[in-house]
Amino acid sequence: MKIPERSAAPINAPQPRRRIGLLGGSFNPAHQGHRKLSVLALKRLRLDQVWWLVSPQNPLKSSFGMAPLAERLRAARKLATHPRIRVTDLERRLGTRYTVDTLSALRRRCRDQRFVWLMGADNLVQLRHWYRWTRIFALASVAVFDRPGETWRALASLPARRFRHRRVAAARSGSLASRRLPAWTLLHGVNDPTSATALRARQHAR
Q: Could you tell me which of 44, 87, 181, 193 has the fewest CB atoms within 10 Å of its CB?
């Protein structure tokens, strides 16, 4: 990272790593819940940016009813409207299908950045079905955002129990990106019940 000319820091001083939140998913379609989670993550986790990783095809979901990637990217960019939220097709460009492979590729290519994987509490419950899910915790810190009715299921889930001793208190979540892995936290404050499935159902009903 280039040091600004007016910086008072010594020219060889190490620069802090950028903190990047990663929000993966189909975004079929993107909705306000995604944006609210991202804005909260920027603030609570002290992130520099949040990247939306719009997946070509979620391996755990059917392709039936899946809008084309280009259409989902356009809709997500229209919704995001925030200078520190980037909507990307990184998984298409990297040629990765699974989260663990995406994180591995990003770690190799972006050594000057620290990554935080962002997910809803409902996804933490399902995480045990993800390919090599324990490896995810070795590649990035994980921030879980509460959803209505999901708190206790999330805390009782296999991943939460497996890494219970590595949980970071919400009051200290601003340091999550800098902590030794594995590290994860559960944050409250989004409480947005919106789901992409419900949005699609309403669209089809019109």
A: 193
CATH number for the domain that contains residue 58: 3.40.50.620
Q: Which residues contact 97 (CB under 8 A, 6 or more apart)?
A: 57, 59, 91
Which pLDDT belongs to residue 117?
98
Between CA 99 and CA 132 the distance in angstroms is 9
- Note the pTM of the prediction, 2 decimals: 0.84
Angstrom CA distances, 146 to 19, 141, 176, stand at 21, 17, 17
1 within a domain of the structure (yes/no): no
12 within a domain of the structure (yes/no): no
Two structure tokens written together for 173 = 């979540």
- Domain residues for 159? 18-205
Is the link from the previous residue into 4 a cis peptide, with omega within 30 of 0? no
Average pLDDT, the chain: 87
**For 45, phi and psi rounded to 5 degrees?**
-95, 0
Total number of domains in the chain: 1
